[in-house]
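WARN no homologs supplied; continuing
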Amino acid sequence: MAYKKGETGNPNGRPKGSGNKDIGALRKVTTTEDSQAVIQQIVSAAKAGDPAMTKLYMTKLCPPLTPKDRLIEIPGLTKKKSLTGKAKSVLDAVATGQITPAEAGNLMNGIAALSKMIDAEELINKLTELEGRTSELESKR
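OK structure emitted
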């Protein structure tokens, strides 16, 4: 039976606690010692050069490396009035090794977002001014 678009055959969804029964059964019969032994075998095979075990180890057992945020102080950045000046300060900081290119990318994204907000604010101000002028002209008629 075909369902209509936006309709589901089970409006209440899957019952809570009804998870995958196979996984639950596997967890019951697998001990910590078993897990440690399997992990040790994977590590040993990876060290021996087994490409499949190396991939398994790197994708499932090693946490992915992620950059850590840190406080960054770029001399003169807050003193610059123009967004272009701020962007140049960020690029100078990368060139001198003060910050990484990834950190610079995050800062440049922030500067770009600020630029869009300033543009929107200026547009709203201009529109408000034009509406005011229009109202003045209409009231003089």
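Residues 2 and 56 are 40 Å apart (CA to CA).
OK
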